[in-house]
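Notebook B, p. 112. Complex prediction, attempt 2.
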Amino acid sequence: MVVNTLRPRILGRTITQVRLLRRDIVEPAGFDFVAQVQNCRVADIARRGKKIVFSLNGGHRFYIHLGMSGRLTVDDAALPVAKHTHLVLELDRGGEVRFFDPRRFGGVFWLGLDGAADAGLGPEPSDLTPAVLFAQLQRTRRVIKTALLDQKLIAGIGNIYADEALFAAGIHPRIPANALSRSQAARLCGAIKRTLNRALRHKGSTLRDYRDANGQPGDFQKLHRVYDRAGLPCWKCGGEIVREVIGRRSAHFCPVCQPERSENRA
Ligand SMILES: [Zn+2]
């Protein structure tokens, strides 16, 4: 649904109840989104690319990134909530905003009081070039996994996306972002775009499977090379995928294909 359609149904309404059906779609992790948003009035709503930016009375902002398959609708509260609906914002005077995202490449990103409009948001993945990504990564010494989830560096990369892109690029999630070489940044840039395109190509069959299977996860997990595959064999080398907590988020990777020691890095 385009913002022009959403706007008259949401603007000036108070969010009376927040139902977060999947906690792990919220960035930063552990942030109490429900408490912050409940009882706030929607002062403005704007679309920037794949991001729907909500401004609340009091000046706080957050955005919903639609990712590959995300949809934002305003529905009658009496209608059943579809599977893969991750967030419901109940509005005063009826109706509720629903965020549906079967592939979970999208997410809900808290911005707080930071600046105006788009200030503070990094470039979209689709706008990245190797040079832009390298420059963004030079700005932080945090580990690359954490940096990829920072909306001020690159906007709209969620946890699954970050794990899959790092695996595709053969980059260990704990390498400091500013220690990546230009060639690694270029590989990572390509991997982010390929991950995105792969998701796009699979979108049709994925959604068809979803309907046929009557709510079963169906084909979704087949796209994941590392995410949610701890203990299973790596698609490239047959070694074991591991899961570690990095920056309070789960990280999934192959220690063989994504070496941490610099002499092993290409
Ligand atoms: Zn491997």
